[in-house]
Amino acid sequence: MTADQMLNPVLSVAIPAHNEERYIARCLESIVQSARLASRQVELVVALNRCTDKTREIAESFGARCVVEDRKCIAAVRNAAVRATSAPAVATLDADSWMSPNTVSAIIQHVYNPRYIGGGTIIRPERMSVGIFFSLLMLAPHVLKRGVSAGMFWFLRESFNAIDGFDESLVSVEDLDFALRLKAFGKTHDKRYGTIRRHGITTSCRKFDRFGDWYLFRNPRLVKEIFEGRNERAANHFYYDTER
Questions:
Q1: Of 65, 59, 118, which is closest to residue 90 (Cα–Cα)?
Q2: How far apart are CA 151 and CA 45, in angstroms?
Q3: Burial of 116: CB neighbours in 10 Å, binned 0-12, 13-18, 19+
Q4: Rounded to an integer, what distance in angstroms lies between the CA atom of residue 45 and that of residue 114?
């Protein structure tokens, strides 16, 4: 790797983190390994949100730049992470998810391709059960009708700035909202919203571990409220006030 590559990363990965000491090492290690396989320099940026555990210590041990955003708003935390990056291209990844070995290569191939405005990826749960399968079926109509993928976003910084990042007025589904606005922005420039399919990400099943594999299937009203994006009671119950 040349000195220029080390000083000028081609990709930054922005990670929001609220008390993620159980997961963030695996997340960061997967990025480091994927970057090494791609022979690319990747910058790591972690936005610390009300952390009282060892998240910062672990993140910095991987060479990550840490910034603090303590508002109880995941969109604001995502924005803080992205805005602290320095590469022309950015990917976002949740702290309880991890990349495949070839994810970095796939991101770079897509994000610098002029056909794409940006995009998302295929998400695989770390485990599967009958309950999780049917719970995911409950989510599918809400996602499929929007025609976008999420999980890990990749885009050029200039596109992020053009659509003003994640909407901080939303308490949930800020990721899908971002995807829809990115896709719409791409259409105005004759560019496609893409999906990385072969080299996606894996995400933890901690919500299912916490609430039970059948929880979402048995609570369709909660699912509906979460996808409204502005129901603070539902968002607090399922996202913000759960133990890590």
A1: 118
A2: 17
A3: buried
A4: 25
**Which one, of 205, 206, 233, lies nearest residue 219 by Cα?**
233
Cα–Cα distance for residue pair 212/105, rounded to 1 Å = 35
CATH of segment(s) 3-127+147-205: 3.90.550.10
User: Where are the domains positioned within the chain?
Assistant: 3-127+147-205
Element (H, E) at 169: none
Least Cα distance to 174 among 163, 188, 158, 190 occurs for 163
What is the side-by-side order of every strand in the sheet holding 116-125? 65-68, 42-48, 11-17, 89-92, 150-156, 116-125, 192-203, 97-99
- 123-182 pLDDT, tens digit per residue, is 999 999 999 999 999 888 888 888 899 889 999 999 999 999 999 999 999 999 999 999
Compute the distance between CA of residue 212 and CA of residue 233 in angstroms, rounded to an integer: 19
93 alpha-carbon distance from chain centroid: 3
Q: Is 166 within 8 Å of 81 (Cβ atoms)?
A: no
Are residues 62 and 44 in contact, defined by beta-carbon separation less than 8 angstroms?
yes
Report if pTM > 0.85.
yes
